[in-house]
Amino acid sequence: MKKIEEQLQQHNIRPTAMRMLVYQFIKSITSAVSLTVVENYFEKSDRTTLYRTLKTFEEKGVVHQIDDGTGIPKYALCQHEHYLEKHNDLHLHFHCTKCNETVCLTDYQIPQISLPDNFIPEDINMLVKGICDQCNI
Fold first, then answer.
1. Exposed, middle or buried by CB within 10 Å (0-12, 13-18, 19+), for 92?
2. Which domain range does residue 121 map to?
3. Domain contains 137
4. What is the pLDDT along the chain (137 residues), one digit of tens a residue?
5. For position 64, which CATH number holds?
6. Does the N-terminal or the C-terminal CB of the chain have fewer CB atoms within 10 Å?
7. How many domains does the chain divide into?
8. CB of 82 within 8 A of CB of 9?
9. How far is 119 from 98, CA to CA, in rounded Å?
């Protein structure tokens, strides 16, 4: 837990017990999670506290939100160094249409996109839908 506490402090997040537990939970799983998944895992916790924890993590660059087309925001741990001034998670996301899990494919970067003059990109999300390696057995 000491390492988690240090991780949160590096992102200027006060390491409360709940924040450390949520961080540990998100770090322990391989797919992106929704608020409902977090809420079900911490069934005795307040939904608002869990939502605020995820939003704080997102604002501070600990997690990024993924729109996988299901209409339910998912959150995944960011894979960047804490010292980066402004981070971006420009990698592919894969949504399995069979098991409904969404995963980050951090080894596959989104290519640089040229936009017309005076267009300023703020976010890029590239999602691939299909059947994951676990379901394709």
1. middle
2. 2-130
3. no
4. 889 999 999 999 999 999 999 999 999 999 999 999 999 999 999 999 999 999 999 999 999 999 998 999 999 998 765 445 455 567 899 999 999 999 999 888 888 889 999 999 887 888 999 999 999 98
5. 1.10.10.10
6. C
7. 1
8. no
9. 37
